[in-house]
Amino acid sequence: MSNKEPYQQGTEGMWNRALYRSYGDQNYWRGGRELQPGQVSFSEGIVEPRHRAGKSFSSEEIEDMSDQQYRATITDAAFRQRGKPETAAIQGVQGAHSGLYGFLAEHIGDMSHRMGMPFSSQSPDREASYDRHYPLEKLHKTSRTVNHPYGFEREHEEQITENVDHHQADRAEYTQKLDTAGEAYSQAHEALPVYNAPMAKARDTA
Questions:
Q1: Contacts of the segment 25-32: beta carbons below 8 A, 24+ positions apart
Q2: pLDDT value at position 30?
Q3: Is 52 helix (H, G, I), strand (E, B) or coil?
Q4: Where is the region Disordered (predicted)?
Q5: C-alpha distances in angstroms, 36 versus 7, 40, 60, 192?
Q6: Which DSSP string do the residues of 113-177 spell out, in sequence order?
Q7: What's this model's pTM, rounded to 2 decimal places?
């Protein structure tokens, strides 16, 4: 809930809408063809600088966006997962341990990307809709692994034992390294901007 007076919210909203409309509502798949000469896309001029600074848009700012601007915003948010969060999964968790834990870290994290990536949020075939196939593929893959009858925790512990024995490592040091990598992975995903309940759920799961 905003602490601002109604007139302040209204004035700020009008200013936001006027600012946002000065930028082009660029669809990802059109490659800027709909922009006017010299016009900067909304994503390049407004969204990317905000996200690069590690900041998110407020719910009020989201309400002031057009539908295409909102889609551009969640697309850029999705691309952010391919930076530090993805590195933390591949080089961090999987670098510390081979097994189901690393597999899940990669694909659970990928859900944050799949929810907003252009194929999902700006489908070239069905522009007005969202394509759920792409995030659902990751959801089903990870759900099957976690809920397998053999038991994820059981198999995870067995894989740790196998890796420790294979590398002749100290189990406490091995698990501490994995815990540290897992915490870095969680923190990297926690910093991702989210703009709807499914995106928040995906981030929190990671």
A1: 25/66, 25/68, 25/69, 25/72, 26/68, 26/72, 27/68, 27/122, 27/127, 28/72, 28/75, 28/118, 28/122, 29/118, 29/122, 29/124
A2: 78
A3: helix
A4: 42-67
A5: 33, 8, 27, 31
A6: HHHHSHHHHS-SS-TTS--THHHHHHHHHHHHHHT-TT-HHHHHHHHHHHHHHHHT--HHHHHHH
A7: 0.85
| Ramachandran assignment for 40, one of left (phi > 0), alpha (psi -120 to 50 degrees), beta (any other) | beta
In contact, 199 and 74? CB cutoff 8 Å: yes
Q: Return the structure tokens found at 135.
A: 């995030």
Domain residue spans of the chain: 6-78, 84-205
Q: Determine the 3-state secondary structure of 18 from DSSP.
A: helix
What's the pLDDT at 155? 96
- Can you tell me the distance from the alpha carbon of 43 to that of 78, in angstroms, rounded to the nearest whole number? 13
Mean pLDDT (the chain, rounded): 88
Which amino acid makes up residue 181?
A
Radius of gyration of the chain (CA): 21
Q: Provide the b/e sequence for 185-201 (b: ≥16 CB within 10 Å).
A: bbebbeebbbbeebbee
| Residues constituting the chain | 206
